[in-house]
Design brief:
This protein has 440 residues and is α+β, with helices and mostly antiparallel strands. The protein is 33% helix and 23% strand. The chain is built from 17 helices and 20 strands. The strands form five sheets. Strands 2, 3, 4, 5, 6, 7 and 8 form a seven-stranded mixed beta sheet that branches. Strand 2 and strand 3 form a beta hairpin. Helix 5 crosses helix 7. It is elongated, with a radius of gyration of 26 Å. The protein starts with 7 loop residues before the first strand and ends with a helix.
């Protein structure tokens, strides 16, 4: 392997770009696949798991990797697009090895795995030869705060034991740190493919906001499983961090007793909009809407409206327009006056009052409108969102195009996107590499 360093710490590979020989990026590294062998033989590296598109991990045999650098992997250009599926004999380094509690062979002292290193051999194989461990500390508290107490060491693979045992209560600090820069949808894909035990451990280690973002991107069954593993108080905190519409959708799938318990544990001001949403039919404008659109009073200026839609945490569809209402401006609001689209805001002087540029031409949605009616209105007028107003003219919320699509697609579309295998023939080289190692 030309350009290969003598030693590579695997957690540092997470997220780095993978290029073909022409210099075109084909994806990013998600994990490294190894085969554990009988002690004292070190694990053999089989290949990389590479994310090549939305929710599509594929297997790249290590024999096809040409260059390993700090910020890039270059391979020979041959890549089977069949979706990666881990086999019983294989181990994912980042997802399954990091944060394990193992022991020194000589003293039996427990230590926590921070990272593992692989090195090339003369025969062009790669082996896991070193283990970075932490004495006396776990590395990350729940909520994301770092904890670096203890002594860090790098030891030989045969100096420790315990990788093959099933561990209960394994942490997730290293895995979360390795995937820390991932978008929520991509991290959700990683979480979806973990064994149930690891999913629970990752959920316990993520902070409430990050876990809320991930839950919103997961299939319904995963959402219910993870929420059910959390303590009730924490589950309520995570629901508070979710968008009210997403929280309502999730709570709507729970048994009545569990749903009411969680709503009672939530802060009253956070639970109130969720309770309102739960009163509407699932496939109605009321059931689709979010209760947190961008709302300003009529005496707000263009500059003030633009400041609100610049919020980086705001859904892009919600940021596309501002709703003008008389006070109070929290849903349900005072009288709805109209909409100002962000392009209009960009064309007007900052001191201009929004009341002078409001668009009243389009009628707002009613909460009882069907999903089909909402979809036709958005499509007819090329809208990415639309206000929902009650019979008294009060703004209740807004329906965004992503929520409409979510409900128009088949119920299991998230699982289908995550689980559908590519229609590709088996790769003989890959099968030989993985099959031979699994038989040893």
């Amino acid at each position: 392997m030309s350009g290969a360093p003598t030693r590579v710490f695997i957690a540092r590979l997470a997220g780095i770009a993978v290029f073909d020989p022409a210099g075109d990026q084909v994806g990013r590294v998600r994990d490294v696949v190894v085969a554990l062998r009988l002690a004292p033989r070190p694990p053999r590296v089989l290949g990389l798991v590479v994310e090549v598109g939305p929710r599509r991990p594929v297997f790249l045999p290590i024999t096809r990797v040409l260059v390993v650098e700090a910020d890039a992997i270059i391979f020979d250009g041959r890549l089977n697009m069949r979706r990666f599926s881990k086999r019983e004999s294989e181990t994912l380094v980042i997802a399954e090895m990091l944060d394990r509690t193992i022991r020194f062979c000589d003293s039996g002292e427990p230590v926590s795995v921070v990272d593992v290193a692989m090195e090339p051999t003369r025969t062009r194989d790669w082996l896991v030869t070193k283990v970075a461990v932490l004495r006396g500390g776990r590395g990350l508290r729940r909520g994301g705060g770092l904890r670096r107490r203890g002594e860090s060491l790098v030891v030989d693979w045969d100096a420790v034991e315990g990788f093959s045992a099933v561990e209960h209560g394994q942490g997730a600090a290293g895995l979360i740190a390795a995937f820390g820069q991932m978008k929520a949808a991509d991290l959700a894909n990683v979480v979806h493919e973990l064994p149930p035990k690891r999913r629970t451990e990752v959920a316990a280690a993520l902070d409430d906001e990050r876990l809320a973002d991930v839950l919103e991107e997961l299939p319904e069954d995963d959402q219910i499983e993870i929420l059910g593993e959390l303590e009730a108080d924490r589950a309520a905190d995570v629901l508070e961090a979710m968008g009210p519409d997403d929280a309502a959708d999730l709570l709507g799938e729970l048994p009545t007793e569990q749903r009411e318990q969680l709503l009672t544990l939530m802060e009253p001001q956070e639970a109130a909009p969720v309770r309102r949403l739960l009163t509407y039919e699932d496939h109605s404008a009321g059931g689709l809407m979010t209760t947190e659109p961008v709302i300003v009073p009529p005496d707000a200026t263009v500059a003030e409206a633009l400041a609100q839609i610049r919020n980086p945490d705001l859904n892009p569809a919600l940021a596309a327009q501002v709703y003008v209402c008389r006070p109070p401006t929290a849903t349900p609001t005072g009288r709805y006056l109209g909409t100002v689209h962000f392009q209009k805001l960009l064309r007007e002087p900052p001191p201009t009052l929004v009341s002078g540029i409001v668009d009243t031409a389009l009628d707002p949605l009613r909460p009882t409108m069907t999903l089909e009616a909402v979809a036709m209105i958005l499509a007819t007028y090329n809208l990415v969102a639309a206000p929902v107003v009650d019979e008294n003219g009060h703004l209740l919320g807004a329906v965004t195009i992503d929520d409409v699509l979510d409900h128009l697609l088949p119920e299991d579309w998230r699982e289908a996107a995550m689980d559908a295998a590519a229609e590709a023939a088996a790769d003989p080289e890959e099968e030989a590499l993985r099959g031979a190692e699994g038989a040893r």
